[in-house]
């Protein structure tokens, strides 16, 4: 990264320039270092690091870290930004924060859009689910749970020409589910563009409330995952998938419960020991 400071590089001392160079070339390591560890690594004093922080327009070393987090964009910066909020990490405090994420997701839930998503899943000839990177686990979980209800579900390859081969199987009576939280991926753009030709409907899980028309799916469900510079939690998206699964089961009625019972009988017959 290139850290932008309130002063010009020419105003920095040699030791301060050394700190700046280290931050720019070892951003992740800096974010997880204490002031003492940084000073020892660079062969300078703690006081020199503190002076650099003030020279950069920050009140202290913690403020300097916050400045770096604000300007950095990688996953390590997001994790460091989350940790710096509470000082010492507390599992209990983290879980309480997840409750706030769930509450914000619930407040933003569009009931009509949710009902449309349930109907789309139940009525689709087949459901194709696409997830990439961290979202791939959500895609696998959704596919697993919907299959148990007797729905025809397939996982789309995450990218490349294999994704295009999977989309060739999608038609007007089908539904493609995608996860498009912070931004629309190249694969997500392909899915949305190809629907004009193939005629399938799209359902997207998003964490943005303002989405350009060309990036909007036919149906969108919002899940809050944290602020832009924070570690992005999967608590709310996972809970939303749970709610959706229960709602789909309810809508299927006897068809859904019969499928679960049949699955249970098969497991008892062929895998009685689990």
Which features would summarize this protein structure in a list?
single chain, 274 residues, alpha/beta, Arc Repressor Mutant, subunit A, Rossmann fold, 2 domains, 13 helices, 5 strands, 8% strand, elongated
Task: Give an overview in words.
With 274 residues, the chain is of the alpha/beta class. It has two domains: 81 residues, Arc Repressor Mutant, subunit A (Orthogonal Bundle), CATH 1.10.10; 176 residues, 3-Layer(aba) Sandwich (Rossmann fold), CATH 3.40.50.10490. Helices cover 58% and strands 8% of the residues. It is built from 13 helices and five strands. The protein has a five-stranded parallel beta sheet with strand order 2-1-3-4-5, with helices on both faces. Strand 3, helix 11 and strand 4 form a beta-alpha-beta unit. Helix 5 runs antiparallel to helix 6. The longest helix has 18 residues.
Query: Strand share of the residues?
Result: 5-15%
**Arithmetic mean of pLDDT:** 88
Q: What is the strand tally?
A: 5
**CA gyration radius, whole angstroms:** 24 Å
Based on secondary structure, the structural category is alpha/beta
The largest pleated sheet is described as:
5 strands, parallel
**How much helix is in the residues?**
55-70%
**What's the number of helices?**
13
CATH uppermost class of the largest domain: Alpha Beta
Distance between the termini: 51 Å
Instruction: Supply the CATH superfamily name of the largest domain.
Output: Glucose-6-phosphate isomerase like protein, domain 1
Strand arrangement, major sheet: 2-1-3-4-5
CATH architecture of the largest domain: 3-Layer(aba) Sandwich
Q: How many structural domains does the protein architecture include? A: 2
């Amino acid at each position: 990264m290139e850290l932008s400071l309130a002063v010009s590089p020419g105003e920095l001392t040699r030791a301060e320039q050394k700190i700046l160079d280290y931050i720019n070339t070892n951003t992740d390591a800096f974010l997880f270092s204490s002031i003492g560890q940084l000073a020892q690594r660079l062969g300078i004093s703690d006081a020199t690091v503190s002076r650099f922080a003030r020279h950069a327009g920050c009140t202290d070393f913690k403020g300097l870290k916050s400045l770096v987090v604000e300007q950095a964009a990688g996953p390590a910066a997001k994790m460091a930004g989350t940790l710096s909020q509470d000082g010492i990490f507390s599992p209990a405090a983290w879980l309480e924060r997840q409750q706030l994420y769930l509450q914000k997701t619930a407040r933003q839930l569009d009931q009509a859009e949710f009902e449309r998503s349930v109907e789309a899943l139940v009525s689709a000839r087949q459901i194709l689910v696409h997830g990439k990177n961290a979202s791939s686990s959500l895609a696998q979980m959704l596919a697993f749970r919907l299959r148990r209800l007797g729905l025809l579900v397939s996982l789309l390859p995450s990218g490349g020409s294999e994704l295009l081969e999977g989309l060739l199987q999608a038609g007007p009576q089908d539904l493609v589910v995608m996860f498009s939280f912070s931004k629309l991926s190249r694969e997500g753009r392909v899915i949305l563009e190809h629907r004009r030709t193939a005629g399938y409907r799209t359902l997207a899980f998003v964490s943005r409330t303002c989405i350009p028309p060309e990036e909007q799916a036919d149906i969108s469900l919002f899940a809050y995952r944290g602020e832009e510079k924070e570690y992005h939690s999967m608590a709310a998206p996972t809970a939303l998938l749970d709610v959706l699964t229960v709602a789909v089961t309810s809508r299927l009625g006897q068809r859904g419960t019969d499928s679960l019972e049949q699955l249970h009988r098969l497991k008892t017959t062929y895998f009685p020991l689990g």
